[in-house]
Design a protein that fits this description.
Distance between the termini: 30 Å
Helix content: over 70%
Number of strands: 0
Strand content: under 5%
Radius of gyration: 19 Å
Shape: elongated
Order of helices and strands: HHHHHHH
Largest sheet: none
Amino acid sequence: MAEQDNSQHIILTSFEDEYTETNNPIWVWHAIDFCSNWQRKTGTSLPYPQWVVDYLAMASDSILKLDDRIVDVSKQFVEILGLRQGAISSSIQTIRNKLIYFEIQAIINQGQSAEQAIESTATRFSLSLHAVTEIYQTFSQRSREIN
């Protein structure tokens, strides 16, 4: 029996974890983008998770309460959506770091030591051992805190 691929759920859970931890709505937008692209690329529907629907309901309610006859709502609109300066580049860096962490975990799961996995990953991503070690330690700590 073939193993079921649930990578989409792992990715969405990862986005949800970041949203919960940082309260930064950029992670909702990553999830929306991911679900939309999943549908386009696979032809399979990937509904928005409940936490995304909850955010969209809150945002739409707030947007519809704006009174555009009184003030320019553009600043309020951006504020409601929660888009902070630097949020996109910061979130992309976090995603990259998670990929590095998952790469290390995959190598460890194949029987190599953490040190060997870190060295291999540092080479693959053209990063210093120190940088990859810090990424691994950060996400290992976060993983222990969740469990």
